[in-house]
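Subject: complex prediction, re-run

Hi both,

The earlier run crashed halfway through, so I resubmitted it with identical inputs.
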Amino acid sequence: DTAVSQTPKYLVTQMGNDKSIKCEQNLGHDTMYWYKQDSKKFLKIMFSYNNKELIINETVPNRFSPKSPDKAHLNLHINSLELGDSAVYFCASSQFTGRGGTDTQYFGPGTRLTVL
Amino acid sequence: AQSVTQPDIHITVSEGASLELRCNYSYGATPYLFWYVQSPGQGLQLLLKYFSGDTLVQGIKGFEAEFKRSQSSFNLRKPSVHWSDAAEYFCAVVWGFKTIFGAGTRLFVKA
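This time it finished cleanly. Structure:
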């Protein structure tokens, strides 16, 4: 069974369109994340959710809107796509330790978004 | 501001040679420290982690890392590299719900 799954794996679309990426984890974790990895492999956190509540929003344009319907799901909707949005988007999940931070993050396979 | 530095963008080692990948962080206290590996077209996978206690930690695939508080470093090592170790390696620090990844070090292994 896949621990963290994302759909779709590839997404090719035109500028100005709206698209969504879905993420599900079956690990029972309470924390989920969205990351953006650019062409230089730089990995930047976008959002962090704990128990369905938004905890971290790293100055991401408001065209990006995450939604967590329950602890196992974290979806990402992107409005008015721009060329600069082309990247690989990773979903991840982990468990908050209650002490210094969250434990190991488990990553999905990524969604490669190409905006033409 | 908090930061994570991996000073080597890429490293090439011969198969069977030893490896050390460097990671330095800037933070007021000791965060949780992680090393992840990413193979082409894949997500990241945990190699090892440090929360507290023994400063030398063992991970999967024969990797180990040493936490040095005085140097704010968490360097990754492997005594003998295999061709299958060729990948991108990321150091990460976590405090609370925040994670910062280093820029990554691409490892090339030559026969």
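The radius of gyration of chain A is 14 Å.

- K.
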